[in-house]
Amino acid sequence: MPKVNAASERAKIRGLLAYQILLLLGFFALWHALTATGILPPFFFGKPLIVLERVWEWFASGKVYRHLGITLLETVLAFSFGTLLGLAVGLWLALSPLASALLDPYVKAANAMPRVILAPIFSVWFGLGIWSKVALGVTLVFFIVFFNVYQGVKEVSPTVLANVRMLGATPRQLLRYVYLPSATSWVFSSLHTAVGMAFVGAVVGEYLGSAAGIGYLILQAEGAFDINSVLAGILILTAFALLLDFVVTRTERRLLTWRPVQGETEPL
Amino acid sequence: MGDSRAPVPQAPALALEHITCAFAAKARDASAYTAIKDVTLRVAQGEFVSVVGPTGCGKSTLLNVAAGLLAPSSGKVTVFGQPLMGINQRAGYLFQAEALMPWRNALDNIASGLIFRGIAKDAARANAQVWLQRVGLSGCGEQYPHQLSGGMRKRVALAQTLILDPQILLMDEPFSALDIQTRHLMENELLELWSANKKSVVFITHDLEEAIALSDRVIVLSAAPEAGPIGAYAVDLPRPRDVAEIRLTPQFLQLHRDIWSTLKEEVLKGYAQSQRR
User: Fold this and answer.
1) Topology, domain A46-255
2) In a domain, B144, yes or no
3) B81: domain CATH number?
4) What chain A residue is nearest to B101 in terms of C-alpha separation?
5) What ipTM was assigned to the predicted interfaces of this complex?
6) Which of A186, B34, B45, B277 is packed most tightly, with the most Cβ within 10 A?
7) What is the domain range of residue B181?
8) Residue B1 located in a structural domain
């Protein structure tokens, strides 16, 4: 019975995927029709065929690999450092009422601050290389993960906590067996947003001053009013953001097998 | 430390002396809420004591004090003659609400207590497997709590507590969420496990029949606020008992009538109070 279920489930997902691809093709067709007929001026809106050709050119000539590699490196570094820092600080503040009360207004202020403004300052501090972009990405990722970890620790069921204490757990064991697993499920729901934010940090950082990266390519193209290259850059960024999000989803599914899925019947 | 912690031979397993618990008022103009007042309860070694009372009378508060999870406003707790400091290490606690770690499967949940005590993972899991079998779930070790039914989760919780072989067992309406058949099964299982190696049990329930069927002694608590014991009844029904059958004996019915006459008034009082609140 569960096999039949899984098979029909897979068929449904495949059908959905077909529609999703169809939607994408439809969008490109509409874009092409509007720009080819001149309803939308191709100078401002680009031409999908030229955009795709540009993407192909970049990959075929190998020109894009260095830029893409740098942007991805910045993104992954910002994502990892930001997540680890958010996890550590989130656990610390959630478990230490004094520190949390002391730092509360500062955390709120730092979160409310438009942190993109910090990009030029980071350029001065860390130079025009990748580290100023990583720093910007970290400030964006950190708060998303931090608030989720904080919430995750606060939401631990008091009964589970009391039970584990009665079973003789030391404070360190409480952290490992209760707080961390509970926070993890919250962290993963935040990581999808965090991946996007890490990309924003990297590209905005490159856009404001750099010598390499997809953001740099886009900036160069804009300087030459080459809208097709700008759109090609955006297309590549989007594809890789999707890819990273997919990796997060996969990892999440593997790590959080214990979590009930709504409406799912359990195979016996 | 070894000598000072040795049990005093004649001391009760658990003694609550003049326990009062007051909670800070939520509203600014209200005075502190006294949940339980001047409660003294002694449980002998190997004795099964039930505490019954109207809803919201502070039964759980009393158990949390005995477990060391809650420090009383005044009064003293001793465990085998030793004053209780922090968590009661000799007690196992079966909670009313879901208490299993949802991120660990049934087997790992049962093994947790042993792992916390520094026992090697393999040995702990092997022992947990034995307990899993003892509570009738040998095939379900890999299941996570959300994949188990309510009754199965209670059995896992029971195994999780009993694997540590606590000398005192604190139970807070552990079977209240179960249907009546599963409940009778679990109650009989509990009596069997208890009689095999006599532990001291404090069993909290609002179900008088369950209390009489299981216990050596039934304590009746008055309605909150300022709840306290207003009656104690020795249950001298023969053991071993079958909880479903013993309910039909005349002795049981007589006890039930006696205790209910005391309890009824408090239940009505408690109901009236909860209406006013």
Assistant:
1) MetI-like fold (1.10.3720)
2) yes
3) 3.40.50.300
4) A160
5) 0.85
6) A186
7) 14-90+167-276
8) no
- Within 8 A of A265 by CB-CB distance, chain B residues are none
Q: Dihedrals φ, ψ of B76, to 5°? A: -135, 140
- Residues B43 and B56 reside in one and the same domain: yes
Asked if residue B148 and residue B242 are part of one domain, the reply reads: no
Q: Cβ contact (<8 Å) for B146 and A168?
A: no
Q: Which amino acid is at B275?
A: Q
- Candidates B226, B236, B172, B159; CA nearest to B202 is B172
Closest CA relative to residue B214, chosen from B178, B175, B179 = B175
Q: How far apart are CA B211 and CA B199, in angstroms?
A: 17
Domain count, chain B: 2
- Please name which of B22, B53, B78 lies closest in space to residue B229, comparing C-alpha atoms: B53
One domain, residues B182 and B150: no
In a domain, B67, yes or no: yes
Rg over CA atoms, chain B: 19
Domain ranges in chain A? 1-45, 46-255
A247/A242 Cα distance (integer angstroms): 9
Q: Would you say B23 and B33 are in contact if contact means Cβ atoms under 8 Å apart?
A: yes
Chain B, residues 152-191, CB within 8 A of chain A, namely: 157, 160-161, 164
**Does B188 lie in the same domain as B153?**
no
Examine the fold and report which residue of B116, B149, B165 is the final residue of a domain before the chain moves on: B165
Please judge whether A165 and B69 are an interchain contact, meaning their C-beta atoms are less than 8 angstroms apart: yes
Residue of A153, A157, A258, A259 to mutate, testing the B interface (most B Cβ within 10 Å of its Cβ): A258
End residue of a domain, out of B123, B141, B165:
B165
List C-alpha distances in Å: A183 to A169, A247, A255, B103, B132: 18, 19, 12, 11, 28
CA pair distance B134, A100, nearest whole angstrom: 45
Give the A:B interface size as CB pairs under 8 Å: 80
Verify that B176 and B193 share a domain, yes or no.
yes
Distance (Å, rounded) from C-alpha A183 to C-alpha A91?
A: 8
Tens-of-pLDDT digits for all 277 residues of chain B? Answer: 444 455 556 788 899 988 888 887 766 666 777 888 888 889 998 899 999 888 777 788 889 999 999 888 888 999 998 898 888 888 999 998 889 999 999 999 999 999 999 999 999 999 999 989 888 888 888 899 988 888 889 889 989 998 998 999 999 988 887 788 888 888 888 888 888 878 899 999 888 889 999 999 999 888 767 777 888 888 888 888 888 888 888 988 999 998 888 888 888 877 777 776 6
Question: Is the same domain home to B233 and B180?
Answer: yes
Domain assignment present for B77: yes
